[in-house]
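Continuing the series of single-chain predictions for the mutant panel. This is the parent chain; the variants come on the following pages.
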Amino acid sequence: MENRSEEFNQSSATTLGYEYTDLVSPCFHNQNHSVAMVIGPYVHSIICILGLLGNSLVIVTYACYKRAKSMTDIYLLNVAVADLLFVAALPLIVYNELSLWVMGPVVCKLLRGTYSVNLYSGMLLLACISADRYIAIVQARRSFHLRSLPYSRIICILVWIFALLLSVPTYCFYHHYEPSHSRDVFYIDDYDDEVNTSSQPPKYVCEFKFINNGTAEITRIAIPSIQLAAGFFLPLLIMVCCYTSIIFTLLKAKNFQRHKAVRVVLAVVAVFIVCHLPYNITLLYETVHMFEEQSCDASDALQTAKTITQTMAYLHCCLNPVLYAFIGVKFRNHFRRIIQDLWCLGKRYIAPRRFSRVTSEVYVSARRSVDGYSDKGSSFTM
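Parent structure:
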């Protein structure tokens, strides 16, 4: 039987025109697949709902109830926009990872590119917030000239352009295509030595595709390296430097109001580190050992860790509004005002005859009570 098996391998290689080599079965990553089937449909759905609701409330607050009066306000508004676009694209990204791609090449590039742009812009804007807090507290004498609204808008535009440039490789190398392993498969029967064909409908994916191995090796290393450098370590370095100086300044000043003013941003940075550090460590390990041979168990464990830590990173996009609501006093008042106005508006439509007068009185009193709060200050916490 062994002799016949050797003859079969050699004859099959000769028949198909390939040089014979020992074949190794692929790793199936069963553990990662089981984890992804739980995290994908359920955990990501919760993240999407919370992210859409929270960031929409932030944008509505700025659009209807609170004017952006400082650089921090402009930055936080842009962070909310980036997070909102991110969670809007997340369901399609998850669907693509768990199934085949059915939406065509244009949507493939647009979706993946938008995902990348919002990832970079959100991280870099958090770094801008920390720099703005540094100027406002440590460089207080110069802050009046440096922290103007025109400057903040220009900086935000530059951040979005820089994020777009960093995402160019994603736009270039993500393609809608049919993988070779899903095409017609030719095999030789062990005993009849006949070539048979197994034909299946085309199965398309939205993944990286390269013209040659050299480009693949360079890009596979470059893209995660850029993400680590510009999407995590650069913002982290800026945050650590700025907030270290802020802490020293606050310790010298012993001013509780200043400490209270920066509390919300410190909380945002802490959540940033907790959410993103595990994933970026996992991504760094995967990048360093990308072209090394690994056992199936080790590869499965790495992919499982990447799936879990990536979900923790996704969670960050829906936590910022929660921080604003529970830590920022003024922003919490604006949220309460939105809920009161929506409640009054709902009562007006549900029972217009019975509640029209009461609704108007409650609506006016609610607006007056909230409007009584002073808008002085440059951040939500002051």
